[in-house]
Amino acid sequence: MMKTLIVVPAYNEAKVLRKTLKGLKAVADVDILVVDDGSLDKTAVIAWGEGVSVVRHAINMGLGAALETGFEAARRGGYDRMVTFDSDGQHEPKDVGKLLDALE
Q1: Burial class (CB in 10 A: 0-12, 13-18, 19+), 96
Q2: Does residue 72 contact residue 7 with C-beta atoms inside 8 Å?
Q3: Domain count, the chain
Q4: Which long-range contacts link 61-66 to residues 24+ away (Cβ below 8 Å)?
Q5: In 1-104, where does DSSP find H-type helix?
Q6: Rounded to an integer, what distance in angstroms lies between the CA atom of residue 60 and that of residue 11?
Q7: What is the pLDDT of residues 25-54, one digit of tens each?
Q8: What is the rounded CA–CA span in Å between residue 20 and residue 34?
Q9: Cα angle: 60, vertex 36, 47; to 5 degrees
Q10: Distance (Å, rounded) from C-alpha 98 to C-alpha 28?
């Protein structure tokens, strides 16, 4: 099985992040990293509470920087593949399961 990381960039997503993470954990047995991009709410606390890895930017640096942090974490962690997923609940977690199945 390939070592996979789902990177979830997040900025002030405390209201929806728990649901997003629970959905991802339900459909995929992979590692999840939330990149908290300088949130002013409890985004990081919620992510930690869900048992996923968290990297925090001290200030908001934008989506590109959050993704680059995720790419770097995947490289350093020796992951074979990485998938990004929006934190705001716009996408269905089940779609990640379909994507990972197709990549397998």
Answers
A1: buried
A2: no
A3: 1
A4: 61/37, 62/37, 63/9, 63/37, 65/37, 66/9, 66/10, 66/11, 66/35, 66/37
A5: 14-27, 43-49, 63-76, 93-103
A6: 8
A7: 998 889 999 999 999 999 999 999 999 999
A8: 11
A9: 155
A10: 10
Look at residues 92, 85, 31, 39 and name the one whose alpha carbon lies nearest to residue 62. Answer: 39
pLDDT tens by residue, 49-95: 999 999 999 999 999 999 999 999 999 999 999 999 999 988 889 88
Beta bridge partners of 33: 7, 53
Which residue carries 């974490």 as its tokens?
73
DSSP secondary structure letter of residue 50: T
Domain range for 25: 4-103
Query: For tokens 């590109």, what's the residue?
Result: 64
Domain containing residue 85: CATH number:
3.90.550.10
